Amino acid sequence: MKRLFIVLSTLCLALGLAFNPFSSTQKSSANTEGAVIDSKLQGLLQDRLTPIEVIITFKDSGDPDAGSLQLLESLGITNAVLFQSLPIAGALLTPAQIDKLADSQDVLSIYYNAPLQYENESSTSLTGVDQVREDADFQAANGGLPITGENIGVVVNDSGVDGTHKDHELGKNLVQNVMANINLNSTIGLAPVAYLENVPNTDSTSGHGTHVTGIVGGTGAMSGGKYEGVAPGANLIGYGSGAAIAIMDTIGGFDYALTHQTEYNIRVITNSWGDTSDSDTDFDPHHPINIATKKLYDRGITTVFSAGNAGPGASTISGNYKKAPWVVTVAAGNSAMELADFSSRGVEGKGGTVVIDGDTFIWSDRPTITAPGVDIVSTRVFTPLSALSLETDASGISPAHLPYYTTFSGTSMAAPHAAGIIALMLEVDPALSPAEIKDLLQQTATPMPDYGTSEVGAGYVNAYEAITAIKADNLAATKKASKK
């Protein structure tokens, strides 16, 4: 009987430990060994010197009290966010401060403020952007902050931008918003190009440019970060030509980028427009758009184009200028990393060489890479075009977010994904040239073996692999220089 009692007691103890959230695998709930530190935070603290975002739970069962405040202050923690009805605080702390907190008898636990992913907003996950944001080594090398494209200027050469939207608000991350409409029929005299700057909303007719802008660098402010763009730290510059555009209008965007490059640190320009009548054509180095983008290339600005939406047939890339050797042209893929049927294709093996300014360039009739372009949720304006996505919006976006976001598909959505990723790359290494950026995007893309290069280019864009390669190359260069 005594033996049976011992067995039952042991079993009860084992069951108790199994269902006790403060089991022996963690630090005791009595806090005799200090606060519980979650495994992810423990891993991040290994050899960590820079501050890290943590969530502190106090032992109090009610609201945070003066004792909790005094504890934080006594440890030199002067910046923290405390909840009103929960004994929880969030702070950016150094490993030394975390160690001191963990020894306190008043602290129950300390957890890493880990990013969360939503299953239906998968674009940044597909492209490796989420991995870039979450990587502890990347953050440590970036002063403890995630890589967001901080201070990299990106021009959205499109229909315009609604700068009243909190995700890309004029005067904040939208650093400039330009309204331009070059009407040659009404031009009198030898007049310089005219445009209006600091316009709150330049996208009152289509919503296309606003959606594109949100993909590049929307902050997700109206969705609690749920629909955050690729590079929310970028300096966004909207160049709006309205719903109807011609070549002159788009060239105006390139001109603006060159003229204001230093003012806004412009390094990328994204273009989601084209000409289906210019599809089955060879690259033409004399085309004005090619001349413009070559000048941007020489000035260190990377031009990104959408491939076009005339697929699935071959030879459908909408513009010879999208075959320029110095631009990045983007096909559209879906969430399964398959090529969208509508995405324009090139021609396998078609291309040639061209000599410009003494340099020999090789052009190909194909996209550079593929990026998400199917059912992409981004910022909306209240225009007739938004109604086209009503059914998709209702099934994929919560009612609370419907006034601020909408769903579009197209290579128009794929191009800004690539532009945002380039901004991330440039934050890590501002010295990268457009040629180096294009090479890196292709070398690190995820292969799409079911397709030819004329359809998908080098494959699905992979931000994490691109930035990993940049960091590895920079480290190798540093070591090589130190040995001299």
Can you offer a commentary on this structure?
With 484 residues, the protein is an alpha/beta fold. The chain folds into two domains: 21-112; 123-475, Peptidase S8/S53 domain (Rossmann fold), CATH 3.40.50.200. The protein has 16 helices and 17 strands. A hairpin with a 5-residue loop joins β3 and β4 (88-93). The longest helix has 20 residues, at 463-482.
What key phrases describe this protein's structure?
single chain, 484 residues, alpha/beta, Rossmann fold, 17 strands, globular, disordered N terminus
Oligomer: single chain
How many structural domains are formed by the residues?
2
Could you name the CATH class of the largest domain? Alpha Beta
Rg estimate, integer Å: 26 Å
Helix content, binned percent: 25-40%
CATH topology term of the largest domain: Rossmann fold
Q: What is the mean pLDDT?
A: 83
How would you write the strand order of the largest sheet? Answer: 8-7-9-6-10-11-12-15
- Estimated structural class: alpha/beta
CATH arch. level architecture of the largest domain: 3-Layer(aba) Sandwich
Please give the count of helices. Answer: 16
Count of beta strands: 17
Distance between the termini: 79 Å
The CATH superfamily of the largest domain turns out to be Peptidase S8/S53 domain
Which term fits the overall shape? Answer: globular
Largest sheet: 8 strands, mixed
